[in-house]
Specification:
4 helices
Length: 181
């Protein structure tokens, strides 16, 4: 009542004749050109994908199993590359670098010659260790991470050098094992 038509469900693609859309079913001006068999030509944009069980017969794959595509990459996984940098735990940063900074602050505020000499000796030692870490890392084949080892050793000192020497020793043992080379 009231001049409104009941709602019509949208068209569903079926194996038989398919109309492009419900509003263009009439022939005449503004309608789609007729199909040679008398059906309307389907428009792809206005159609929904078919529901379950409504596939045309030529789309069904009878008697053929769906096979997975061949892998592009081989299934053999390559082992991960050994690490070239190992950060030291944060406690070493807090104690060694924090102690170096605290020593510098105390030497500056108290204007103590002994504290100043202690700070200069510690700083010289850290710089020397950092240079050694950089050279040793470059000679050991850790080229791109040599600067990281030097910066860490400058701040932390000997714990970083110990970690660097342990890493190089592990890499040397791993390279001499049978099957690794």
């Amino acid at each position: 009542m009231g001049g409104r038509d009941p709602p019509v469900p949208p068209p569903v693609r079926r194996p038989g004749a398919v109309r492009a859309c419900a509003g263009r079913a009439r022939r005449g001006p503004g309608g789609p050109p007729p199909h040679p068999d008398g059906r309307l030509r389907p428009r792809r944009l206005g159609l929904r994908p078919p529901g379950h069980g409504h596939l045309p017969p030529h789309r069904l794959r009878r008697g053929r199993r769906v096979r997975a595509r061949a892998d592009v990459r081989p299934r053999v996984s390559t082992p991960p590359a050994p690490p070239t940098f190992v950060p030291v735990p944060g406690l070493w940063w807090a104690t060694n670098f924090g102690g170096l900074v605290a020593n510098a602050v105390l030497a500056r505020r108290r204007r103590s010659r002994r504290l100043g000499l202690l700070f200069a000796a510690a700083l010289t030692l850290h710089v020397g260790e950092a240079v050694h870490a950089w050279r040793f890392a470059r000679r050991s084949g850790l080229g791109d991470d040599a600067w990281r080892w030097a910066a860490q050793t400058l701040g932390v000192g000997f714990p970083s050098l110990l970690a660097l020497h342990d890493l190089v020793a592990e890499r040397a043992v791993g390279a001499t094992r049978p099957g690794n080379g």
